[in-house]
Write a structure and sequence with these properties.
single chain; alpha+beta; three-stranded antiparallel sheet; 3 strands; about 40% helix
């Protein structure tokens, strides 16, 4: 078995198990390197497979085989034909739901999406809304004046508690601030 077809985890196990077999490290150290308990390394089936079959014993047994959960080619072709015929303007989720309800064709929406992308029938492009849009400034000074008050102990205990009221002209961006006893529009 080639080492290139092994996963990173399998290559790491191969290296550690070969060092155990050569008696360069103990199983306790191997357990620590692999993130396993000592008990797991004592009876580790993977190590026994390695000792019996070499590197081939560390490769996952289902590699290269068809998944037990997969669909056969005829089911895929039937689903894609139904999509082309009746659901071409549907997204994968709605199409999967409607196929299950109307045509008794069961397929997961993510599986259908993947099939549609592979066939070139679906481009998964989300149309995102713009997060924020800036309002254009007013054209003339004084057209819009924004104000805000900030009550705070501005004098740090050396005088009364005051509110800073700030006025900002939208057109020019000029700011004017003044302290008042409270945030109100009443003149005093």
């Amino acid at each position: 078995m080639e080492h290139l077809s092994m996963s990173c985890k399998e290559r790491t196990r191969l290296e550690v198990f070969s060092r155990v077999k050569a008696r360069q490290i103990t199983r306790v150290k191997a357990a620590a390197l692999l993130g396993l308990s000592y008990r797991q390394t004592l009876t580790l089936r993977a190590y026994r497979r390695y000792a019996k079959r070499g590197a081939a014993g560390l490769v996952h047994g289902l590699r290269g085989k068809v998944s037990n959960r997969g669909h056969d080619r005829s089911h895929r072709q039937t689903v894609l034909a139904a999509y082309r015929q009746s659901y071409g303007d549907f997204g994968p989720t709605l199409a999967a739901e409607q196929m299950a309800a109307r045509d008794d064709l069961a397929v997961n929406h993510e599986t259908l999406r993947r099939w549609l992308v592979n066939e070139g029938l679906w481009r998964g492009s989300r149309k995102r809304q713009q997060h924020r849009s800036r309002r254009a400034r007013k054209a003339h000074a004084g057209e819009l004046v924004q104000l805000d008050g900030s009550p705070h102990d501005w004098l740090e205990g050396r005088g009364p508690r005051l509110t800073l009221v700030e006025f900002v002209d939208d057109a020019t961006g000029r700011a004017y601030g003044r302290f008042y006893a409270e945030e109100t529009t009443a003149r005093r």
